[in-house]
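Forum > Structural Biology > Help requests

Title: Can anyone predict the 3D structure of Aspartate aminotransferase?

Hi all, first post here. I have the sequence for Aspartate aminotransferase but no way to get a structure on my laptop. I'd be grateful if someone could post the structure tokens.
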Amino acid sequence: SAPGFRPCVPLAAPVAVFKLTADFREDQNPSKVNLGVGAYRTDEGQPWVLPVVRKVEKMIADDHSLNHEYLPILGLPEFRSSASQIALGEDSPAIKDNRVGAVQCLGGTGALKIGAEFLRRWYNGTDNTKTPIYVSAPTWENHNAVFSNAGFEDIRPYKYWDAGKRGLDLEGFLSDLESAPDHSIFVLHACAHNPTGTDPTQDQWKQISDVMKRKSLFAFFDSAYQGFASGNLDKDAWAVRYFVSQGFELFCAQSFSKNFGLYNERVGNLTVVAKDQDNLNRVLSQMEKIVRITWSNPPSQGARLVAITLNTPELFAEWKDNVKTMADRVLLMRAQLKEKLKALGTPGTWEHITEQIGMFSFTGLNPKQVEYLVKEKHIYLMASGRINMCGLTTKNIDYVAESIHEAVTTV
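Reply #1:
Sure, ran it for you. Structure tokens for Aspartate aminotransferase below:
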């Protein structure tokens, strides 16, 4: 190495999903199936550009009033307001009270990052490195990394997945809420929990809210799948809106990667619900400083695309129809996989496949069965047994069901 520089250290191994993709690409078997991909795929196994996105892209290209000047530090105003509105609802009392603001971010990860940086600095005093951060067990792997990287030193799991019943461990969840120190921060999945696909019911969310309110726990929602989960924007935002109705100050990290198919545009929004307008202004002022030293100001293309769509009634209606197309395909694959496994007489219960929601499903397959599927059947999935339902197609679903049956009955 050059004078003055320490010898280079080996880079960390790529995260599991990228290694899985690399292994899949190298596999020459014609019957191979990739159930580990983290994005939507059509029934032909291809990426899908939403028709409404194609339409708005052409509109932007033909609008000669637009330019490439810097956006404001907090982002495109019409994007921020419309993104927060679909999260909280058109009639949100918090919006009417002028206590909702937002920061345009680089995807959902960027929204989590800005929120985490703010909380570490200002949540409870000026140094919150010891404040416990609770993430579900299991959770999306980046949740741990984002909060750790922001400087939080005490990141804890809260009970969520009950492997035995293949569903939500509500009793364990509520117990961990009760035992958490007051003012702890909980990262909650707004809908389509990643990776389990298991969400609390509305009654269960009410129980969770009651405990969090009594113990003054901070709710940081991650909303990466609104509309994509059920096909209904309002249904998928119910939990966030309920917490707001109960008087919570909260953050909601929104991603438009999945529900707009804008994976590489990095379109995200951090919605801030404060107790009053004065407090909101102080929060956004500090977030502006954080953004300034992080990415200075955000890119415009993806944000303009989303803003135009959300603010134009006919385009908004078309987008909701496009999102429902994706959601319905996922729901269909869930129903068909469950029915095929039941028809084969595969041991165990498979009701959880249709009880879960969103792109991912925790199948309940154990690591040895997963290994069998990968090595013997060329079906690629996470070691946890998580699969992306979009990897299933009408052409491969019989093969996948038969292979799962074989793995369960022989391993």
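The CA atoms of residues 159 and 173 lie 5 Å apart. The radius of gyration is 22 Å.
Shout if anything looks off.
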